[in-house]
Amino acid sequence: KIIGFVLSRFIKAAEKTRFSMDEVILKAVIKPAEWGVMLFGIFLALSILPLPTKPIDIKQFVDALRNGAAVAVVIWFAVRMVDGLAEVWKRKAALTETKLDDQLVPIVQRSSKVFLIIVGVVLVLQNMGYSVGSLLAGLGIGGLAVAMAAKDTMANLFGSLVVFLDKPFQIGDWIEMNGVEGTVEEVGLRTTRIRTFANSLITVPNMLFTSTSINNWSRMKKRRIK
C-alpha cells in the first residue's frame, strides 16, 4: 500500500509534465509493483522457514513458484506498458492526416500482448520445472492439424495485409462490396467492421478483400447530383 501511495503521488506529478512516457511507465508499474512487493515478502518469509525436503522437496517447489511469480509480474508490467503506449500512439495517430496509423495501432497492440503472454506462459512453465522443449515438440507434431484448422484464420490474416499494403480503403471510408455498403469503422487482423446506413454493424472476413472488387465511394474526385 505504501508503494502504491508513493507511485500515485508520482503519477500526479508526471501528469503536469509535457512528457508522456513517465506517466505511461508509472501507471504501468503501479499494480505490478504492489503485487511484486507483496510476493517478495511472502517468499522472503518462506525462505526463512525450515521447509522440508523429504519426502517431498517443498523448498524446491517454493523456489520454482517464486521464479514463476517473478516472471508473471514482469510480463504483467510489459502488457500494461503496451496498453499505455498504445493510448499515446492513438492520440498521435488521430492528429495525422493518414488513417493507416489509426488502423495499425490496435493490431500492433493486440499482437504484442498475445506475444508477451505466450512468452510469459513458456517462461513460467520452464521455471516451474516443465520441459518446454518437449511441449514445443508436441506442438510441432500437431502443427499440421492446427494449420488445417486455422487455414481460414491465415487467409483472413493475409487479407488484412492486403488492406494495409494496397490501401483500398481507410477507416471512415464509404465502401461497397458483395452487397455490403457502409462506413469502415475498424480493421482488425481477422475481420473488418462496416457500419451500414441503417446503423447496423456488419463484420466482414478479411479474406474476401483478396478476391472481391471493392467500390470506394469516398475516393470519387467529383460527384454528380441529379
Written description of the protein model:
The protein is an alpha+beta fold. The chain contains seven helices and five strands, in the order αααααααβββββ. It has helices at residues 2-14, 21-48, 58-94, 100-127, 132-141, 143-149, 151-166, and strands at 174-177, 180-187, 191-196, 201-205, 215-216. It has a five-stranded antiparallel β-sheet with strand order 4-3-2-1-5. It is elongated. The termini are far apart. The mean pLDDT is 81.
Which descriptors apply to this entry?
226 residues; alpha+beta; 7 helices; 5 strands; elongated
Percent of residues in beta strands: 5-15%
Which bin fits the share of residues in helices?
55-70%
Query: If strands are numbered along the chain, what order do they take across the biggest sheet?
Result: 4-3-2-1-5
The pLDDT mean sits at 81
Instruction: Summarize the helix and strand pattern as letters.
Output: HHHHHHHEEEEE
Largest sheet: 5 strands, antiparallel
β-strand number = 5
Total of DSSP H or I helical runs spanning 4+ residues? 7
Radius of gyration: 24 Å
Return residue spans where pLDDT drops below 50 for at least 5 consecutive residues. none
Overall shape = elongated
Structural class label: alpha+beta
From the N-terminal CA to the C-terminal CA, the straight-line distance is 69 Å
